[in-house]
Design the sequence.
C-alpha cells in the first residue's frame, strides 16, 4: 500500500511538470508496410518492416520541481526495393529528457539524444548526438504551447527543425498533443477501455552503411490507432495508415545532400501492432 501511494504521488508530480495524455513505461511495436497502396506507379516498389522496443524511467527531483526521464530503446528496419536494394538497419539510443517548471505559467523542456544508427552495431563511426529544446507556456488549464528547436548531427550534415509543441484538452474525452511537424496526436475516448486516435508521424533518420556512406530515410505517415486497455495499465494497440513522400537516399558521409542514390519510393499502406504498460496522466 505504501509503495502504491508512492507511485501515485510520483505520477501526480510528473503530471504537474509536463502534461501529456499518457506515459508508456514499457512498449514493443511492430510495423509492416507491404507493397500496395495509393502511391504512384512510376515510383519504386518496396516494402518495409520496423521493430521498436523501449522503456521510460522517470526520476523526480521534488525540491526543484524537475523531472528527468531516461528512455533507452532498440529499433530495427528491413527495407527491400524491387530495384535490388535491400537494407537491414539497427538503432540503439539513450535519450534523456529534463522538464522543469518555473511557475504556474512558464517552464522548459530539453531532450538530449545519444544514439547509434547503422547496419552494424559493432562499428565505431555511427554515433549521433542531438537535442530538442522547448519553452513551455501554459495558457490555461486546457492549453499549453511549446515553441522550440530540434537539432541533430545527421550523417550528411547538420539538421535543424523548428518545432511547435501543443497540448490541448478541450474536454474530458478529446485530447490533442504533439510536436508539429514531427508528430501530432488527436485522441478520442470512446469508452473506459477503448481510445481511438488520428496520428501524423514524421520519419527522418540516417544510418551508416560503411565508414564513408550512409542511408537516409524520409517519410510522413498518417494513420488511425485503436487502443484497447485489456487491463488497467496494459494496452494493445492496432494502427493502420498510409505513407506520404517516402524517399530513400544514400550519400557520402558529411557531404550535405551529395547523394549517390536517390529513390522516390512508392507510398504504401502500413500496419502496426504494439503492446504497452501505460500510465494515463490526462
Sequence:
Amino acid at each position: 500500500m505504501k509503495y502504491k501511494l508512492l507511485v501515485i504521488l510520483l505520477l501526480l508530480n510528473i503530471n504537474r511538470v509536463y502534461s501529456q495524455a499518457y506515459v508508456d513505461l514499457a512498449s514493443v511495436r511492430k510495423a509492416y508496410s507491404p507493397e500496395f497502396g495509393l502511391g504512384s506507379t512510376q515510383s519504386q516498389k518496396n516494402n518495409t518492416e520496423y521493430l521498436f522496443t523501449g522503456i521510460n524511467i522517470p526520476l523526480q527531483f521534488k525540491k526543484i520541481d524537475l523531472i528527468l526521464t531516461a528512455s533507452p530503446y532498440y529499433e530495427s528496419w528491413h527495407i527491400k526495393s524491387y530495384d535490388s536494394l535491400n537494407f537491414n538497419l539497427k538503432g540503439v539510443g539513450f535519450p534523456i529528457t529534463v522538464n522543469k517548471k518555473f511557475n504556474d505559467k512558464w517552464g522548459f523542456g530539453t531532450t538530449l539524444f545519444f544514439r547509434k544508427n547503422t547496419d552494424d552495431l559493432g562499428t565505431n563511426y555511427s554515433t549521433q548526438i542531438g537535442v530538442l529544446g522547448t519553452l513551455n507556456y501554459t495558457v490555461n488549464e486546457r492549453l499549453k504551447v511549446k515553441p522550440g528547436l530540434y537539432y541533430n548531427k545527421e550523417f550528411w550534415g547538420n539538421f535543424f527543425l523548428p518545432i511547435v509543441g501543443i497540448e490541448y484538452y478541450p474536454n474530458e474525452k478529446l485530447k490533442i498533443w504533439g510536436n508539429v511537424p514531427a508528430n501530432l496526436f488527436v485522441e478520442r475516448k470512446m469508452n473506459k477501455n477503448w481510445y481511438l486516435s488520428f496520428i501524423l508521424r514524421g520519419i527522418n533518420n540516417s544510418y551508416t552503411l560503411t565508414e564513408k556512406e550512409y542511408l537516409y530515410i524520409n517519410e510522413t505517415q498518417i494513420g488511425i490507432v485503436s487502443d484497447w486497455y485489456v487491463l488497467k495499465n496494459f494496452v494493445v494497440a492496432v494502427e493502420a495508415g498510409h505513407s506520404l513522400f517516402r524517399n530513400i537516399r544514400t550519400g557520402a558521409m558529411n557531404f550535405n545532400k551529395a547523394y549517390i542514390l536517390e529513390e522516390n519510393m512508392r507510398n504504401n499502406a502500413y500496419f502496426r501492432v504494439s503492446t504497452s504498460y501505460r500510465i494515463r496522466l490526462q
In short: The chain has one domain: 2-280. DSSP finds one helix and 18 strands in the chain.
